[in-house]
Amino acid sequence: xxxxxxxxxxxxxxxxxxxxxxxxxxxxxxxxxxxxxxxxxxxxxxxxxxxxxxxxxxxxxxxxxxxxxxxxxxxxxxxxxxxxxxxxxxxxxxxxxxxxxxxxxxxxxxxxxxxxxxxxxxxxxxxxxxxxxxxxxxxxxxxxxxxxxxxxxxxxxxxxxxxxxxxxxxxxxxxxxxxxxxxxxxxxxxxxxxxxxxxxxxxxxxxxxxxxxxxxxxxxxxxxxxxxxxxxxxxxxxxxxxxxxxxxxxxxxxxxxxxxxxxxxxxxxxxxxxxxxxxxxxxxxxxxxxxxxxxxxxxxxxxxxxxxxxxxxxxxxxxxxxxx
Length: 324
Hints:
Elements: E1 2-7, E2 10-15, E3 25-34, H1 37-43, E4 47-48, E5 51-52, E6 62-70, E7 82-86, E8 94-98, E9 102-104, H2 111-114, H3 118-131, E10 139-143, H4 148-159, E11 164-168, H5 172-175, E12 185-187, H6 194-201, E13 207-212, H7 219-224, E14 226-234, H8 247-252, E15 256-259, H9 267-286, E16 294-299, H10 303-311, E17 318-322
Helix pairs in contact: 3-4, 3-9
Protein name: Zinc-binding dehydrogenase
Keywords: NADP
């Protein structure tokens, strides 16, 4: 099979053997795979949980395709099923999927659309429902809502019963589109009045829950926009991995600040996260109520342009590599 690896001189496509499914695994013929920011980090030598861009190992962590072979013990799937998943070795003609962590692709959904969903769905369900403990009727702020995961967060918050969902983006064009994905209010976090606008939208109290993709020096304003005894779940650090933190403000508002990285979770914990997302959001997925924009589709051989587009941060939604 053909696979995209991180070679000695950077990314390149090589010919290699098809993987063999083990117990509780299936072999999937990949039709489309999508890029994530973690792919760029791994190209620079970082690891992402159990994944890294190792020599001669296919890159990528999100794919959609067709089951072509079953390993021992697989009961939930059959040959011919259309499936999507987050998993290692996505950038290849064939990959392995574990029985418990795949989603069925809804009828009528293309492979290009399907490959955009798994990472965002399970990340946002875990952040909002499991870590954020979002309750029916509460309010949510998504900091950095124009990222793919942020766009999904707006939608999942609505699915979970949030009444006021606020999204921020510093890009005016992207900010104007947040309402398409469930935002009741879209704000620019560079606006000196943005915190007051959050307070105005929540009766002066602040939001119950923040999903934060930004962090950095924005953290203190984020805390000011959160209600007393509210929760902040950190997902990303687009604004910086460090910054001034007002501990007195954090203490006086009695805020719960939660880190929600997947990188330090064991395989059982990952399975539990995915099963929880499938249980709660399965109907919404099947009805195609959760969606992400496909920013661009590149042929598999055109991977360099796809990676460059992500590096330049020109995209809105997901960048997809098409294999079939």
